[in-house]
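Board notes, transcribed. Complex of a protein with flavin-adenine dinucleotide.
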Amino acid sequence: MADYRSVSHWMATVDDDLTPLPALDTDIDVDVAIVGAGYTGMWTAYYLAAADPGRRVAVVEQEIAGFGASGRNGGWCSALFPQSTSSLAGRHGRDAAVALHRAMRASVDEVGRAAAAEGIDCDYRKGGTVVLARSAVQLERAREAYAESEEFDLGLQLLGADEARARLGATGVVGGTYTPDCARIHPAKLARGLSAAIRRRGVALYERTRVTDLRPGELVTTGGRIKAPIVVRATEGYTARLPGLRRAMAPVYSLMVATEPLPDEFWDEVGLAGRETFSDFRHLIIYGQRTADNRLAFGGRGAPYHFGSKIRPEFDRDARVFAELRRVLADLFPRLGDVPVAASWGGPLSIPRDWTASVGIDRASGLAWAGGYVGDGVATTNLAGRTLADLILERDTELVGLPWVNHRSPRWEPEPLRWLGVNAGLWAMSGADPVETRTGRPSRRAALFNRFLGH
Ligand SMILES: Cc1cc2nc3c(=O)[nH]c(=O)nc-3n(C[C@H](O)[C@H](O)[C@H](O)COP(=O)(O)OP(=O)(O)OC[C@H]3O[C@@H](n4cnc5c(N)ncnc54)[C@H](O)[C@@H]3O)c2cc1C
């Protein structure tokens, strides 16, 4: 049996032996068949079962619940959406963009509420997010984020240097921003808790069962066929492996490290007293949290996109990226200098061609989907699950009118253009920060790429 504990520090530290549930071994008929037992698939099953207990729902997972990004992520349950509110407003109008942001804020709370209602202790702590500015150009970006927040009433606070340092005592802090709209969680405790919660509500979950084809009215799996009038695709970073979907999403890896538990003296100096999640205004995304057992769990992008949208276990680990994460941590917190890293891991997230997450259903075929969250899926999947439940039950709610519903992203270019394009973007972002540090001026290539991505 696969060693599922090695998937991530989170999967290694759940109170659960991770034994797979029985695989599908016969043909079955259900009302709704869901592919993928990550947060998207499980929240969808959860809200469907809660709203209509009589409906027969099956979830099919190629490994075990939480095997994908849902059991590996940084644990920011945030109101962040992959597209900025101003760009959503440009496309859909101000009211629609603000409504989506409100729904995201509510989703942060809903994850906490539902977890508590189901007795899932996932270390949920809503302490907000602090994003540091550590140079003049980063401070300028903090001001721009604040200006967008003021325009759309997003609730971001602009912090002076002392206020920012009081939240997080990293080196070189000249200011920052703070939002209360984020909870720190232990990702795998949420994923595994959801798996138990949906089964208690009568959802059938088949593990170690791979879907090899997904058609209107039917899933073909390694263990049998599932007939269902509604089929939901919730496969995120793995989507490109399904027939006909090779160019739907580009899987990109995010990698993480976790320290051993750190002593009180470290936290007295560094802060995060409210368990704020944290980042800074550099271009190449980094993200961190103080865990319930006082470790720093810290991650970032920088791993390459792999030709042909390939996903392989060996891509979860990249010595160069781990060394860079370690270097950035030591730069932020010199006291960490030689504190050993206890665990390192990674996983695929998913980027649609227009960086726009979407949720929807095609009524004619009964095919539904949700995904394309880039790196902001923890709370967004909850919104997706509630929205899919409303769409499937044909309920006319506020959620089904949000602007991401039934959005269709264009396909990615065929290879080698996809490989060139995605890696050029990653290269532009990783090269931009050192240039800014050297010159003290905003990076031109990062600005160019941001324009190209419309993001
Ligand atoms: C390292 C890392 C850090 C991240 N940090 C954050 C963060 O801090 N905050 C945040 O908001 N987001 C973060 N994200 C993104 C977030 O984790 C994801 O957006 C979210 O978990 C997506 O959930 P999902 O259910 O859609 O996909 P997944 O969790 O990937 O689930 C998809 C599931 O489908 C299964 N599957 C795929 N294909 C098949 C098939 N053919 N047959 C059967 N089963 C199949 C997979 O095994 C998998 O279990 C991070 C992601 C990574 C990788």
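The two ends are 42 Å apart (CA to CA). The longest helix spans residues 94-117.
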